[in-house]
Amino acid sequence: MPRRSHRRIALAALAATLAVAGVAAAVDAPRSVRVPYPRPALLTCGGGGLAFPPSALDRPRDYERRDSAPARALRRFLREEADDVSQPRSGWFLLARRRDRFEVASGKPPEYGWMEFERLGNGRWSWLRSGGCFVRTRHYGLPAVTWWRRGDGPLPADATRVPVFVQEDECASGRDARGRILRPLVHYGRHTVTVTYFIRPLRGASTCQGVPPTPAVLVLDEPLGRRTLRDGGPYPPQQQR
Q: What is the DSSP string of 50-67?
């Protein structure tokens, strides 16, 4: 079974436990923000990743073959150490570049190979970190989180309040995100309603044990009708059941 399926089953079990305990009655209902665009302006590969536009995912491959200082640093690293970090040796494209950092990706969704480089004091570019990239929407300076409906069965056409669970991905010392859920972004399309949630991180140091999903209420500006709800956190958005 895929790793994500195991995680979803575990979260569903935890959600059921919370509901039985009565925790699900304590909900957040921050007012949503209506957005006119069907896709986000910015994406990211994670909490510390650089922001980049959706068009970056369509950039030409083989960035490692170019004749620039960042490309040469990437090429040298791939030749000498790609196997050590379990990354492919070719097919990379530029996601984002700032003065002292750049990020590249390789492969195909849902999980890209990903690496970040930094420029040192001597002007040379050096590998900083690498891993997998599940592309997320970025807003409020934060990556989006995942959410799903609480309860089963179809929603009525006149529904404007939808019980949901919102799942934090960052370290939070085992605490849920009550009081830290930011105003979700909502795009009302002809056939879909795309909802994107964000959570304000805890201040200070936090331990990294698992965190429970947070019960919340999604408040829509207009009835759902026959439209499908989508989670706009991952990119492309994912249909909700």
A: PPB-GGGGGS-S-GGGSS
